[in-house]
Write a structure and sequence with these properties.
Length: 176
């Protein structure tokens, strides 16, 4: 019995001291993430790092391919704003593990998106690294915006309403 109690205390101590990933909150810089090799990366195969979300205001769309059109209104609204490229950057990360669609079909669709939005960096996440690291919604369309220091300034999991799109645009303008 004493042995069982000792083990319980040790396990409880480990659980209480072990860092657990928590959802990224407004005003926080999310944990650093790098997508490379079998984890993912850019369309050309080069690595992508969340450190790239610094030095400019950035908006990141993290999308399940089955939800690819969910926030097209937000993408189009941001495109119409013509934010200056030296102060603003957009990233589209595709949650490749969230769909039954074959990777080659998704990659082809991404190349088409790249033509439509040439200033956006497109990235593949093969293992839900960002879902697990930042605790964002899986099987969804997530929109996150970051200031020049990499702090989260806007977050929405799911479809943005017209009002939320205007809020996103205002938040970006306020931080340029």
């Amino acid at each position: 019995m004493r042995h069982i109690i000792t083990r319980f205390i040790v396990v409880l101590g480990l659980l209480l001291t072990h860092p657990v990933a928590q959802a990224v909150e407004l005003g926080e810089v999310p944990p650093a993430i790098e997508l490379k090799g079998k984890l993912g990366g850019r369309l050309d195969g080069t690595p992508w790092s969340s450190a790239e979300l610094r030095d400019k205001v950035s908006v990141l769309f993290y999308v399940d391919p089955d939800e690819k059109d969910t926030n097209n209104e937000a993408s189009d609204a941001l495109d119409r704003e013509k934010f200056p490229g030296d102060k603003f950057h957009s990233v589209g990360i595709i949650n490749m593990a969230a769909t039954w669609l074959p990777n080659f079909a998704i990659s082809s669709a991404l190349k088409d998106k790249q033509k439509r939005y040439p200033k956006t960096t497109y990235v593949r996440d093969y293992k839900k690294v960002i879902v697990n690291g930042w605790k964002i919604a899986d099987d969804s369309s997530n929109v996150l915006a970051f200031d020049k220091n990499g702090k989260l300034i806007f977050r929405k999991d799911g479809k943005l309403t017209s009002e939320e799109i205007q809020t996103l645009i205002k938040v970006i303008r306020d931080h340029l």
